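Question (not urgent): is this output format expected?
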Amino acid sequence: MYMVGKYLRILVYILAIYSLFLSGGCAWQKTFGAVEFKSKPAGAEIINLGDDSLLGTTPTKVIWEETGGESKKVTVQFRKQGYLERISDVWVNTRHASREEALKKAQPIEVELLKKK
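Got this back:
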């Protein structure tokens, strides 16, 4: 009987610790951030220079997913035929608990592209 009580107590401790990690603020909890990219003129491609991926065409919103709510530096390039390319560093704040919340509070980034001569 003593062994059953001992194992039960250990199980209760494990469950208590596990529930603490599941409550808000744990280090591996997914968090989200979003940026609303705009350009003048509209229709510029947005390239993530970190991995050369196409994020979309302006105007658009892009979501990033991280763990722990850390900010993330992203370097993007705006390209549109007939205009000079533009590179910008963006700090994405991934503090939102859901994709929907991140989209509602997307950080606005607007660039003006200059015509090629």
